[in-house]
């Protein structure tokens, strides 16, 4: 039986014979093809077929994928920019905004007389047409249909703003991942996505940032921090391919931001239809920003007034500078006209009051009440009057006139007089002793008749009490006299010095001459103690 190795060798030999036969056939065909041009073309086709069939190269999938990425000029992240519905909506919005701007320019250029003439013509047309009832009904129907269409478009625009914000955030992440190799410190200096993207689109691959103008994007403190960080950065320049992708992402984000600005302009012009009371309170621009940041008018009506204060708040960049004047957590409402007109001391109070009024106005608009905005105007007037009253200084203290004194005499019960009156009615020591019951022997007779022998205790105590009261007065004087009087023991100086005829003055110890008895020896356990009784 043939083994596995034998079969494998036999297969290899068969392959070699097949290759030799193919090569012989190919050489014969090549010789015959030299006769004419037609034969040459056929031989070339056969040779190509032979090479494709037998000598086809294996392509690496990873290399092919990388080559395709290199061949592409620009990568694209945003799907919204290439959506047909989005592009149609944006075209209609642009046309509407352009028409509004042209109409405003035309109104500004017109004189007062031209405006009056237009009004007169409209009045004449409305009064002169007698059979215009049917036309008026048709106009009302058209207006209602246009209002519904505008409301639908407004809702779509609010949804588009939310989608644009999410796409800008995604692009910011991609740009940050790519550009961190070039400038890793930029992420810690510039926080907001649009500012970061616009800075990257200006810096590109340059190392010296002194010649680049960032004044239209960032404040001076942030620009200074960026220039200092760029001089000390550890980043490496990007390759051409990665830089091209990064800049294409930046262009997409800036284009989305421009579309967002156009949508907000359209919403500003149509805000009175959606939220008339809130528009009368805040203005069309702020109302559009507030509703677009929350998501819808329903979400705004549900949101509490405390949460409305921080809607649209952005994180400030801390660059080692003072934060005393910076207000963290303050959002869209802080930029309103009412809050800006108030001094700094009352701005916090004004924002909280405005947030409460905005929540009320949004709920009224959600339930379609007061379509002409009367309630919002009333809220605005009340808020302004309240803030004016808060800023008023407190009333001056008036000088109080003293009342006329009464002529009749008053009872003066304070001080010495009252103390003396109290002493007159005070209980005496005798009465105190009578009220005390004796302790010990039982008395058979009545205690209060003074016939009992125990009453003698009372009489004996009376003299003691009188003596003690007198003795207390002279206590201090007696102590002074006792300290002045000499004691029985002589002073230390007189007892320590002796005048002798031989040596003059001598020192001696008086305790040696007059020894004191030892108090320990007189005790019971002394060794010298004797029996007291025998």
UniProtKB/TrEMBL annotation:
InterPro entries in alphabetical order: Nop_C, Nop_dom, Nop_dom_sf, NOSIC, Prp31, Prp31_C
Keywords: mRNA processing, mRNA splicing, Nucleus, Ribonucleoprotein, RNA-binding, Spliceosome
Chief localisation class: nucleus
Any one Gene Ontology molecular-function term assigned to this protein's record: RNA binding
Segments of skewed composition (Basic and acidic residues): 28-52
Nop domain: residues covered: 274-392
CC terms in the record's Gene Ontology section: precatalytic spliceosome; U4 snRNP; U4/U6 x U5 tri-snRNP complex
SUPFAM superfamilies according to UniProt: Nop domain (SSF89124)
Biased composition (Acidic residues): 131-143
Family recorded in the similarity comment: Belongs to the PRP31 family.
Protein name: Pre-mRNA splicing factor
Organism: Plasmodium coatneyi
